[in-house]
Specification:
Elements (H helix, E strand, L loop, with lengths): L1 H31 L2 H23 L3 E2 L2 E4 L12 H10 L5 E4 L8 H4 L6 E5 L3 H6 L8 H13 L6 E6 L8 E7 L1 H10 L12 E5 L5 H6 L3 E3 L15 E5 L7 H6 L9 E5 L3 E6 L9 E4 L11 H23 L10 H15 L4 E4 L1 E9 L7 E7 L7 E10 L4 E12 L18 E7 L2 E6 L9 H12 L4 H11 L3 H4 E4 L10 E4 L3 H4 L7 H4 L8
Parallel strand pairs: 4-5, 12-18
Antiparallel strand pairs: 1-15, 2-14, 3-10, 3-14, 4-21, 5-6, 6-7, 8-9, 9-11, 10-11, 12-13, 14-19, 15-18, 16-17, 20-21
């Protein structure tokens, strides 16, 4: 019996290591000259040119394809270790293309493989920087984190890092404030968010101190290719690249934090394994670049979302009313309890299945979007931001002056559409985004990954279950099966915290602990649980 078991186990283990070896060998061979880099650069350039032309001419621009290639493991349903290993070693997919700074929450589709605890993404306020004795001092950001953010957050999730989202990537400034691992262990066991059982928080981040320069530089993010010799502020107006100095030595938390920091103002950013490339838009002065994707119907020949949304809402109201009327007389009180809830769930499901996803622009590898029928299903056009974004936040962007150790205002604001951010703590603001935006609408068929799927779980069974939960307490087993079958949407992995006027804090977005960190979705149902995530197309 023992011999027969060994004959099965050893070949299986050998096959796993063989596959890992092949992936490693391919990575080494591609490191010298990677044709996928060239494909990513070409697509970033092509998209930049289309956006500039749309701004300059006010015409609707089209493209037939967008592509970011990356080798991904096969047989992921059988070998879950392969995509997990690739993401944990790289932090993010090999290529991440976005506008100015990566939209919070949208990375949950691959950050699910990390074991990070909760993180806070927040800008430092201009009012706070002005109020400090040494105005706009780089060290003031640390005070903002310690004195303001800690007090403003009162949730139960353990926070292991705070990412300041409005300081441009810099050689001498760390905008990710990480808790010392020993301190994290202390208050994790103590039960508090930022401190428990008498533990004090010990943050690491901010300006790179002169005395620690040799140590910090080895583990630093990197440096800009073209930057001022003294201030080390990146030069603007031309293509630039922030070259990583020792990327593989960074922790997964640090690798993922980089993309939340701006690569520049009014620029497309392309994060690769070697650095972050900045592609400034020369003809545009817009508030943002939203992307509309996962469009299951072509609203008006070119993805006219507002018109389609209005039409679907009318259908929803009529259908919901009809279903409530049908169920009204089924049993006493059914129209107020079960009938109304079930009818609403059905109408929501039917209508939501025809809607779309909207976020700030980003595309990740592996991704191939192609319109083979030449029907112009990838469009780029200038629109009023209010027509596409009904909830937004904005904040000023700063660059760090190494010579004077100060933050310099760039006189530009970054805008974030918060349509998919969760509201378990506060509701995101309900206000129309001002100004003009460049809207990228994708109704063409996609292959591979491209983006985290629909941010809201709008399946019929899920909506019905949520309705039933309002009537009957959910069972543990049933709840677990629902989560496994339908995954964790972006709204469930994020939470919004409104500004605290008393503490002078800005908007905060919480990235909740990943499934891996919470030890959920492991074991037999793992492939089902991650069916919508990276590496599981």
């Amino acid at each position: 019996m023992t011999d027969s078991i060994e004959e099965v186990i050893f070949p299986a283990i050998g096959l796993v290591f063989l596959l890992l070896g092949i992936v490693l060998l391919a990575s080494i061979l591609f490191s010298a000259f990677n044709p996928y880099d060239q494909i990513a650069f070409i697509n970033a350039e092509k998209l930049r040119a289309k956006i500039d032309e749309a701004c300059m001419t006010n015409n609707v621009m089209t493209t037939n394809s967008i592509e970011l290639r990356q080798n991904t493991p096969s047989f992921t349903w059988a070998f879950s270790i392969l995509p997990r290993w690739l993401i944990r070693s790289g932090g993010d997919p090999n290529y991440v293309l976005y506008y100015e700074a990566f939209p919070p929450g949208e990375a949950t589709g691959w950050e699910v493989y990390h074991d990070m605890q909760a993180r806070i993404i927040t800008p430092v306020t201009d009012d706070f920087l002005k109020s400090q004795p040494t105005q706009y001092a780089g060290q003031s950001v640390m005070e903002y984190v310690k004195e303001k953010v800690e007090k403003a957050y009162t949730g139960s999730d353990k926070i292991d890092s705070i990412i300041i989202s409005n300081i441009v990537l810099s050689e001498d400034f760390r905008a990710d404030y990480r808790i010392d691992k020993k301190e994290l262990e202390k208050f994790t066991s103590g039960g508090g968010s930022f401190g428990g059982a008498g533990a004090s928080t010990s943050w690491k981040g901010g300006p790179v101190e002169e005395a620690k320069k040799s140590e910090e530089k080895f583990f630093s993010y990197g440096k800009w290719r073209d930057q001022d010799k003294d201030t080390k502020i990146p030069l603007t107006g031309a293509d630039n690249v922030f070259m990583f100095s020792n990327y593989m030595s960074l922790s997964p938390s640090e690798k993922t934090a980089i993309k939340y920091m701006p690569c520049g103002v009014n620029s497309l950013c392309l994060k690769t394994r070697s650095g972050i490339y900045s592609f400034p838009l020369h003809q545009c002065n817009v508030k943002g670049v939203p992307i509309i994707n996962d469009i299951l119907i072509d609203y008006n020949g070119g993805g006219d979302v507002p018109l389609g949304k209005k039409l679907l809402n009318n259908v929803k109201s009529a259908l919901g009313g009809l279903l409530i009327w049908i169920t009204k007389g089924t049993s006493p009180g059914a129209d107020l309890a079960g009938g109304g809830l079930i009818a609403s769930a059905i109408s929501d499901s039917l209508v939501n299945s025809l809607q779309y996803k909207l976020s700030e622009f980003y595309i990740v590898s592996p991704c191939t979007i192609s319109d083979k029928q030449q029907l112009n299903k990838i469009t780029i056009q200038k629109k009023e931001c209010k027509d596409v974004c009904e909830s937004y936040i904005s904040y000023p962007i700063y660059s760090y002056d190494s010579k004077n150790q100060k933050l310099n205002p760039t006189n530009n604001n970054h805008f974030v559409c918060t349509r998919s951010i969760g509201n378990t703590i506060n509701n995101p603001p309900d206000n129309l985004m001002p100004g003009q935006c460049i809207v990228v609408s994708i109704a063409a068929k996609k292959s591979d990954y491209c983006w985290t799927p629909q941010p809201k779980d709008t399946g019929l069974i899920s909506n019905l279950w949520n309705s039933v939960k309002q009537l009957y307490p959910p069972g543990v087993v049933a709840s677990a099966v629902l989560n496994i079958g339908y995954g964790y949407p972006i709204t469930g992995n994020t939470a919004f915290i409104a500004p605290n006027q008393n503490l002078d804090t800005d908007n905060m977005i919480i990235l909740k602990p990943t499934q891996t960190a919470l030890k959920e979705g492991e074991g037999f149902f793992e492939s089902l649980d991650r069916k919508l995530f990276w590496g599981w197309p």
